[in-house]
Write a structure and sequence with these properties.
Blueprint (H helix, E strand, L loop, with lengths): L10 H15 L6 H8 L3 H8 L2 H21 L8 H6 L1 H12 L4 H12 L2 H27 L9 H19 L6 H17 L3 H5 L10
Helix pairs in contact: 1-2, 1-4, 1-7, 4-8, 6-9, 7-8, 8-9, 9-10
């Protein structure tokens, strides 16, 4: 069966521009004319490539997870100090939001999903939130196996707490220009992580030394 003519544009680049637009404005406030202007594509090219606006939105969320989320969370568990890598996430989020206050596309989508009663979108977002939680969990699990965290730490609960704080920080950043609220949350999380960590002097002891110190 003969193929149609090759596309004269880069679908990934078009998806990236659509993602940026949804990230800034949300689904409801983004019109098809906005999308056509941002991508430089006509209605037929958009529909033939991505489907309708709702289908494009879902693909933008998938692309956001594969790119932005993966850059932030993908390598946490491989860091030489996973606990420190997680502790550095909030300052990184604050820096990313200093210029444009966009927050997180997943957060923007979460804020709209229940209002629109789009259960398929809600289900999609749950899977993407789990990607973040699982990345944090893997980092804390490795930190625990390395002896950075105490043996009794519930790493899943700790990951969920950090995920919720990070999502909240991104939503706050969309309306709050002063980053002090995020900075203070970061300091509180640092205290929490330190409380879960094995004391450095204990980590440095050799086997059999525990009872030698007064």
């Amino acid at each position: 069966m003969p193929r149609g003519p090759a596309k004269q544009f880069d679908p990934t680049a078009a998806l990236e521009r659509a993602m940026e637009l949804f990230w800034k404005k949300g689904f409801a406030a983004t019109s098809m004319s906005d999308i056509r202007a941002a991508t430089g594509l006509g209605a037929k090219s958009l529909y033939d490539t991505f489907g309708n606006k709702r289908a494009l939105y879902a693909q933008a969320i998938e692309h956001y997870t594969a790119t932005v989320v993966n850059r932030l969370y993908g390598g946490l568990a491989d860091d030489p100090s996973p606990a420190a890598a997680v502790a550095g996430l909030l300052p990184k989020v604050a820096r990313l939001n200093e210029a444009d206050h966009r927050g997180c596309l997943l957060g923007v989508a979460m804020a709209e999903a229940r209002v629109s009663q789009d259960e398929e979108l809600v289900a999609l977002l749950k899977t993407k939130l789990r990607v973040i939680e699982d990345a944090l969990h893997a980092a804390f699990d490795r930190a625990k196996s390395m002896g950075e965290l105490r043996a009794d730490v519930d790493t899943r609960s700790l990951a969920r707490l950090h995920a919720v704080v990070l999502h909240g920080a991104n939503l706050v950043a969309r309306v709050e220009e002063d980053t002090e609220s995020i900075s203070s949350a970061h300091r509180a999380l640092e205290v929490l992580i330190r409380a879960q960590m094995v004391a450095r002097d204990t980590m440095a002891r050799k086997p059999g030394e525990e009872g030698r110190r007064a």
